[in-house]
């Protein structure tokens, strides 16, 4: 229900109803109920059954804006679904390449092997230098 701007609103805990009170006049007296019904503050009508055209236009604009936002979210979701359909997960690709006797390793897995080769005491100096060169290439990509 529309409430005039500047009204005092509270929740009555005994009845569970929300109550609104117009602000006091300058002389300290409150408006009577009849005066409140007839009086309009700003563009908001005190009578709950009537609204100004401006209020209705603003409410309609808010509804349209929220509808546009919902459409945008749903279109993004559909776009993500179509992109996901085009690509397959890495685990599935690895399984398919294993069937072809090809082993696919990620850059991370290769870097871990190169580091372990470099730290290994069984590696020769040439193997360690080669591991460092290869590792430099992968680190540069990251």
From TrEMBL:
Residues 16-35 have a biased composition (Basic and acidic residues). This is SIL1 factor. GO terms for cellular component: endoplasmic reticulum. Residues 1-41 are annotated as: Disordered. One of its GO terms (biological process) is protein transport. One of its GO terms (molecular function) is adenyl-nucleotide exchange factor activity. Keywords: Endoplasmic reticulum, Protein transport, Transport. Signal peptide: none annotated.
């Amino acid at each position: 229900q529309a409430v005039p701007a500047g009204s005092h609103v509270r929740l009555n805990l005994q009845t569970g109803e929300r109550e609104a009170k117009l602000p006091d006049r300058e002389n300290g007296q409150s408006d009577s109920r009849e005066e409140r019904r007839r009086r309009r503050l700003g563009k908001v009508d005190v009578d709950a059954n009537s609204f100004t055209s401006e209020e209705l236009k603003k409410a309609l604009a808010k509804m349209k804006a929220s509808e546009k936002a919902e459409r945008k979210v749903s279109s993004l979701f559909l776009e993500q679904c179509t992109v996901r359909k085009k690509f397959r997960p890495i685990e599935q690709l690895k399984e398919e390449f294993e069937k072809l006797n090809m082993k696919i390793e990620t850059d991370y897995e290769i870097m871990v092997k190169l580091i372990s080769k470099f730290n290994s005491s069984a590696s020769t100096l040439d193997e360690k230098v080669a591991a460092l060169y290869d590792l430099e290439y992968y680190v540069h990509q990251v």
